[in-house]
């Protein structure tokens, strides 16, 4: 596509197989965006794209990722506030024409849907660390370490001592936003053993006011999740044939975009071949 949209806090570059998002740095930019810096979102990781009116004369362009395609969004589990959604671009209303054109072109290129069987968006790069209320957490790519604070850790954690968990021994991560009451990050291990409260669990660190902020603890959780998933065998996914009527409708829509000059000859031929291959 080659289009570029500059909005508040980010610049989006639309390419033939991905969207490159570069987040700005500044006092008004959400800290999570600054921590992420730059993200490349493959089109295969996207379910749809929407464009809607925003507040105070703005437009909101939003990408909808497929379930299970992005470790960051899986770790967030719907807890991010609207202003911190990394898939949301706020634009001035005067760019409606360009935004609408980009939305149509991008929508025509999206062919995947449903849950992804693996992460398609890269996880935040390590090593990562942050300070929680009751200790410090560090991740080096292969193991997670918790070092307890003498001012905040419970007696149960002090008795258990500092902890080190190998990624190979984990089944997942649970993150509860520090912006809510009783936020925490907990490492999950295989098995159905009773789980103690986070402040008593040596496999968890708890957050507090000023401890474990979203822009530090969420990328941390996402990186651990991606490392855990990478060690699991990828399940075989049965390939289902798409509805011929749906394919025909997509090709028809693609043809309209091609005739309108919004899709190049090469893009039209390539996407048409991909859609026909799904029959």
Automatic annotation (TrEMBL):
Span of domain DUF4429: 12-100, 138-224
Highest taxon of the lineage: Bacteria
Domain SHOCT: start-end pairs: 249-276
Pfam (any one): SHOCT
Name of the protein this chain belongs to: DUF4429 domain-containing protein
Taxonomic source organism: Streptomyces malaysiense
């Amino acid at each position: 596509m080659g289009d570029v949209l500059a909005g508040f806090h980010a610049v989006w570059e639309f390419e033939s197989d991905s969207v490159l998002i570069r987040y700005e740095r500044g006092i008004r930019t959400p800290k999570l965006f600054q921590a992420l810096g730059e993200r490349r979102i493959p089109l295969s990781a996207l379910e749809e794209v929407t464009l809607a009116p925003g507040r105070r004369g703005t437009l909101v362009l939003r990408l909808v990722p497929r379930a299970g395609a992005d470790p960051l969004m899986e770790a967030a589990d719907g807890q991010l506030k609207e202003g911190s959604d990394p898939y949301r671009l706020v634009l001035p209303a005067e760019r409606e024409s360009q935004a609408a054109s980009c939305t149509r072109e991008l929508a025509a290129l999206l062919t995947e849907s449903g849950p992804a069987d693996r992460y398609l968006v890269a996880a935040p790069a390590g090593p990562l660390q942050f300070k929680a209320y009751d200790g410090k957490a560090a991740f080096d790519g292969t193991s997670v370490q918790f070092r307890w604070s003498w001012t905040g850790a419970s007696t149960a954690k002090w008795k258990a001592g500092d902890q080190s968990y190998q990624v190979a021994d984990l089944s997942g991560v649970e993150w509860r936003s520090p912006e809510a009451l009783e936020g925490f990050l907990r490492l999950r291990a295989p098995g159905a053993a009773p789980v103690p409260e986070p402040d008593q669990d040596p496999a968890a660190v708890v957050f507090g006011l000023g401890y474990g902020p979203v822009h530090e603890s969420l990328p941390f959780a996402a990186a651990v999740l991606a490392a855990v998933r990478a060690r699991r065998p990828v399940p075989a996914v049965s390939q289902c044939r798409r509805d011929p009527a749906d394919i025909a409708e997509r090709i028809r829509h693609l043809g309209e975009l091609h005739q309108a000059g919004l899709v190049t000859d090469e893009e039209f031929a390539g996407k048409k071949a991909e859609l026909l291959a799904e029959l």
